[in-house]
Write a structure and sequence with these properties.
- The chain has 115 residues and is α+β, with helices and mostly antiparallel strands.
- It has a domain of 67 residues: OB fold (Dihydrolipoamide Acetyltransferase, E2P), CATH 2.40.50.40.
- 36% of the residues lie in helices and 15% in strands.
């Protein structure tokens, strides 16, 4: 009699544990739930990724990663965020080409040849 009561409870507990364990590693567990309304300085941001239904999240957002590895959720419709994404993409293209953009400072010194 006790086995009849215990078996369904054990099956229920096992089912709940399995369902909970499957949710831990899913990409949807790291979704933005709202957009930040604060202005984000562009020199804080090192990268971004897009979030939406295709990644298992309900809210469309741009997830910005700061240089201190903090995540900030922003609206993809915000013009400032769109400009920030374009600047980050441009920076990636420059690095892939092997160009390091020199801004200001002294020009490179050339070696003199001896005659």
């Amino acid at each position: 009699m006790a086995l009849r009561l215990l078996l369904p409870l054990l099956l229920l507990a096992a089912t709940l544990l399995i369902a909970q364990a499957q949710g831990i590693g899913s990409p949807a567990s790291d979704c933005c739930l709202k957009h930040s309304r604060k202005a984000i300085p562009s020199n804080w941001v090192k990268s971004y990724r897009l979030q939406g239904p295709e990644s298992g999240c309900m809210l469309r957002a741009v997830v910005l990663t700061t240089k201190k590895n903090k995540k900030i959720c922003a609206s993809p419709a915000d013009p400032a965020i769109q400009q920030l994404m374009q600047n980050l993409d441009k920076g990636k293209k420059d690095k892939k080409k092997g160009q390091s953009p020199r801004t200001g400072g002294r020009p490179k010194r050339q070696k003199q040849q001896r005659v």
